[in-house]
Amino acid sequence: MNGPPDAGAAERGSAVAEFVLVSALLVALFLAVFQLALALHVRVLVVDAAAEGARVAARADRDLAAGAARTRDLLTAALDERYARSVSVRETTRSGLPVVEVTVRAPLPVVGLLGPGGTLTATGHALDEDA
Fold this sequence. Notes:
By secondary structure, the protein is of the alpha+beta class. It has one domain. Helix content is 49%, strand content 21%. A 3-stranded antiparallel beta sheet has the order 1-2-3. A hairpin with a 2-residue loop joins strand 1 and strand 2. The radius of gyration is 26 Å and the shape is rod-shaped. It starts with 6 loop residues before the first helix and ends with a strand. The mean pLDDT is 91. InterPro entries: TadE-like_dom (IPR012495). Keywords: Membrane, Transmembrane, Transmembrane helix.
């Protein structure tokens, strides 16, 4: 009765431990990919809001404040008020042409929508129709 130990008995219970470890790894990988997708989504929304604000501010019948307000409205509606806190609008020139420039500084989402402020910067330009 003192024969070699049964190989199957030594592995008993390892399937449960393996399942738990692999599941934890897969959940962490899924959450990392989801967070990356969320950060890219926020970046696209901030860039789009800056460009739309520049287009509104550059119209002949509007002023710079209207562009800033439109940018803030878009960011507040799509994300949160925190993302619309730092919006600046100015008139400048690019390649000798007068343009309106809208710059947005927003938080970069690190965990969910939470993150350090001012780390994501997007700038939108539009040709000034008044000039």
